[in-house]
Amino acid sequence: MTLKLFHFQNSRSLRVLWALEELGVEAEIETRQMDRTKMKAPEYLALNPLGKTPVMFDGDERIVESVALIEYVANKYADGRLTRRPDDADYGRYLQWLHFGEAGMGGYVNMLIGQTALLPAEHRIPAMKVWAEKETKNCLDFIEANLSEDGYLLDAFSLADISVIYPLFLIKITKNGALLGDRTNAYFKRVTAREAWKKACARVD
Ligand SMILES: N[C@@H](CCC(=O)N[C@@H](CS)C(=O)NCC(=O)O)C(=O)O
Known about the structure:
The relative contact order is 0.14. The chain has helices at 13-23, 36-39, 42-45, 66-77, 91-104, 106-118, 126-146, 159-173, 182-191, 195-202, and strands spanning 3-8, 28-32, 55-58, 61-64. The chain folds into two domains: 3-82, Glutaredoxin (3-Layer(aba) Sandwich); 91-194, Up-down Bundle (Glutathione S-transferase Yfyf (Class Pi), Chain A, domain 2), CATH 1.20.1050. Helix 1 (13-23) packs across helix 8 (159-173) and helix 1 (13-23) crosses helix 10 (195-202). It has ten helices and four strands, in the order βαβααββααααααα. A hairpin with a 2-residue loop joins strand 3 (55-58) and strand 4. By secondary structure, the protein is an alpha+beta fold. Bound molecules: glutathione.
């Protein structure tokens, strides 16, 4: 098999696994425990010198960055399904949301989960938590204002949703879900009812 994804449960490799499921693209999946010490050990650094997840191989080609990976899989192995092309009317908004999910809000959400869940209590800095919450809320308000009652970020489900749902998932599993607006909560529920999401989340072996 050409594609091989290293998957760590609940990590950003979930975006890639979910996209593979949605697109029906075959890949070898190696699931590993989210153990930061092992991720910084030589065996894993040989796979991904950043010591992060995800990393995927296409033959000898190594690719990191979860949002790049979902576009790669869709464009290279699924005829661009779930993407938009330059001549589509919503191409600009597609790119905006695709990148917003990681570049726009990923850093703030990382800070928030660090200050509320990942870091030991004695390493947390109250002012950083306030700042992370404020910036995350700013991103969430932007999402809320752009959602309709029953749709997706664009007029149909796309990779942009796969990108943006992941930070929403992180916010929820770290018990920061009260920051989400009503439409965003309904959107999260709607999108995560998809079979492909459920299959990707169920992958723990
Ligand atoms: N922008 C990167 C972020 C990768 C990243 O930070 N992944 C986290 C897990 S979701 C990680 O590997 N953390 C382990 C660590 O930093 O030690 C992407 O989207 O792939």
